[in-house]
Amino acid sequence: MIQSMTGFGKATCEFGNKKIVVEVKSLNSKQLDVSTRISGLYREKDIEIRNELSQKLERGKIDFSLYVDNSGKESVTQINQTVIESYYQQIKSLSDKLGIDVPANWFDVLLRLPDTMKTETVELDENEWLEIRKTMATAIEQLTLFRIQEGKSLETVFNDKIAHIGQLLEETAPFEAERVEKIKARLEENLQALSDKIDIDKNRLEQELIFYIEKLDVNEEKVRLRNHLNYFMETMQHEKSPGKKLGFIAQEIGREINTLGSKANNSDMQKIVVLMKDDLEQIKEQVLNVL
User: Fold this and answer.
1) For residue 116, what pLDDT is reported?
2) What is the reported pLDDT for 135?
3) How crowded is residue 22: how many other Cβ atoms within 10 Å of its Cβ?
4) Which residues neighbour 51 within 8 Å (Cβ) at sequence distance 6 or greater?
5) Which residue range forms the structural domain that includes residue 45?
6) Does a structural domain hold residue 1?
7) Looking at the structure, do residues 169 and 67 belong to the same domain, yes or no?
8) DSSP 160-182
9) In which residue ranges of the chain is pLDDT below 70?
10) Which of 121, 176, 256, 257 gives 20 to 30 Å between its CA and that of 283?
């Protein structure tokens, strides 16, 4: 079963008075491209997080976010009450001593003074990290389920388009014998018009006709095209991450369709080839989203 590279997963956990949120988003990309946005306390785990994402998600443009929901009461930076009280007493004492008015906006003045805010140094608790790892696993699992669901839609598109190309290929059969007869008749008519003016070696003419008609034969292209269509279906159904391979097979399908069109020499066959190309373009566009 194929997976899309597009997906989204989100999970949360609570540790102490903190609500921790993990979000993972994935879009299509030729390679694995991971970008992370991680709250300061957890940045030391950036490499570990990237390794986990690369192992589980394989390919795509991955945006990962790990942050603390600030709707809780947790605050790392706090007001240093002792320092502010000391500043207040000193300013009030100077005011009384020098006869200067005390400031009307005490907090604006006090909070601009040195050391009035204190930042607690917090180390990451190992138990907290274990909870975050579980939450990451849940978010990645949600993203994978999203990818699988999207993959089912892609698989439906591929089944329909490959089947339609195969059907169109069968529809070329009635025009093959007809076009050969038309080519022979046209050549013979043109040569007949020249027969009064030049001598024609009928044996040589027959050889040239056979050679020319063989150049227009499309049986090999039809066989190869049918094989490529089957190979596309087999790869889609049996390989785990077939996106790149399906892209290469689609290119080979395109080569055979183009050759079929150049050899068609028949307006009805060329119309069928145009319909094949339309289906193939839609396949190529969607293959870019396959993991």
Assistant:
1) 80
2) 97
3) 24
4) none
5) 7-73+125-147
6) no
7) no
8) HHHHHHHHHHHHTHHHHHHHHHH
9) 70-77, 118-122, 177, 180, 187-188, 190-215
10) 176
Q: What is the pLDDT of residue 254?
A: 96
Q: How many structural domains does the chain have?
A: 3
Do 32 and 51 form a contact (C-beta atoms < 8 A)? Answer: no
Same domain? 157 vs 132: no
Number of other residues whose CB lies within 10 A of the CB of residue 169: 20
SS3 content of the chain, % helix, strand, coil (to 5): 65, 15, 20
Closest CA to 222 of 280, 173, 154: 173
Order of strands across the sheet with 7-15?
Answer: 7-15, 18-27, 60-69, 32-38
Question: What residues have CB less than 8 Å from 145, skipping those under 6 apart?
Answer: 9
Kindly give, in sequence order, each residue whose CB lies less than 8 Å from that of residue 284, ignoring residues fewer than 6 positions away.
247, 250, 254
Check if the beta carbon of residue 194 is closer than 8 Å to that of residue 161.
Answer: no
Task: Give the Cα separation of 270 and 167 in Å (integer).
Answer: 15
Question: What tokens does 280 get?
Answer: 């193939």
How is residue 218 annotated by DSSP? -
Residue 223: burial class (beta carbons within 10 Å; 0-12, 13-18, 19+)? exposed
Kindly state the helix (H) or strand (E) to which residue 21 belongs, with its residue range. strand 18-27
Residue 173 confidence (pLDDT)? 86
